[in-house]
Amino acid sequence: MLKYLAIFILCYSPIVCLSQDLIIKKDGGEIEGKVVEITLEEVKYQSSSNSESPLISLPIGELLLVKFANGKNHVFKEQGPKYKLGQEYGGGIIFYIDQTGEHGLIVSGEDYHLPMKWGKAHRRIGASSMTNGASNTKKIAAEYGSQCAAGICENLIIGGFDDWYLPAIEELSLLYKNRDHVTNIGVLNTINGRGISKWKTDYISSTEYSNRNDCMGVHFSRNGKVFYYNKREKYRVRAIRKF
Fold first, then answer.
1. Beta-strand (E) ranges in 26-77?
2. How far is it, in rounded angstroms, from Cα 4 to Cα 25?
3. What mean pLDDT do residues 149-169 have?
4. Same-domain pairing of 6 and 67
5. Residue 225: pLDDT band with limits 50, 70, 90
6. C-beta pairs of 30-35 under 8 Å, 24+ apart in sequence
7. How confident is the model at residue 188 (pLDDT cuts 50, 70, 90)?
8. Cβ–Cβ under 8 Å, residues 175 and 109
9. How many domains does the chain have?
10. Residue 20: is it exposed, middle or buried by C-beta count within 10 angstroms (0-12/13-18/19+)?
């Protein structure tokens, strides 16, 4: 009688007899457990068939498929990148994505207030960063207000975003490099059919040059060449922001 009782307990115990699912990872690893939930970001499972065991989560990105005990399979499809160059996002167009794939730079969809000057010559104000246009813009706008390229950018509100700025020279060079993903930028325009105005293909940056009179820009019609120009000269303006 005790023999038959032991068999009964073994076969009907919920700890042992409930079927197990098989989670297969991309690295070839396999995990047995009871899958409780599959979301867009993770799989939640119990390490045994015991309904009282704690839930364990696995990120979707690590998983290949789930083989359920009922014979069905759930295959995890490869998800594409969250952002891509040329994507309309954050009030403009994405033209740079960093190595994380989560952050980058956005450019406004059009030029603003053509032509515009950087500011006044004969004095440096410390807007010398090659990479941080936001910092440069604050210094320039504080000095010259809205009547300059940086001030125009700082006062923009596009798509509800108000953190636009005039790009530093390296940010502007990135914009040139990825210009094919941006609409209507660096287009050659004739003026009254008589030729090309110099500022029609050149863009102004927020970076001062080493002397007190000049700043830096990029020739969009001449292979992205960096050039130096007098702060009082007028060139094209595109605002950018980070995301």
1. 30-38, 42-46, 55-59, 63-67, 73-75
2. 40
3. 96
4. yes
5. very high
6. 31/58, 35/66, 35/68
7. low
8. no
9. 2
10. middle
Q: Which residues contact 157 (CB under 8 A, 6 or more apart)?
A: none
- Percent pLDDT > 70 in the chain is 84
Q: Tell me, what's the pLDDT at 78?
A: 72
Does residue 82 sit within a domain? no
- For residue 112, give the 3-state DSSP assignment: coil
Is residue 49 within 8 A of residue 15, CB to CB? The reply is yes
Q: In angstroms, rounded to a whole number, what is the distance separating the alpha carbons of residues 116 and 199?
A: 9
Between the CA of residue 197 and those of 104, 187, 226, what are the distances in Å? 32, 11, 18
User: pLDDT, tens digit, for every residue of 8-31?
Assistant: 333 344 444 457 899 999 888 999
> Tell me, what amino acid is at 139?
K
Domain that holds residue 71: 2-75
Do the Cβ atoms of 118 and 204 come closer than 8 Å? Answer: yes
The whole model's pTM is what? Answer: 0.67
User: Is residue 141 domain-shared with residue 229, that is, in the same domain?
Assistant: yes
146 and 108 fall within a common domain:
yes
Taking alpha carbons only, the member of 71, 54, 65, 57 closest to residue 19 is 71
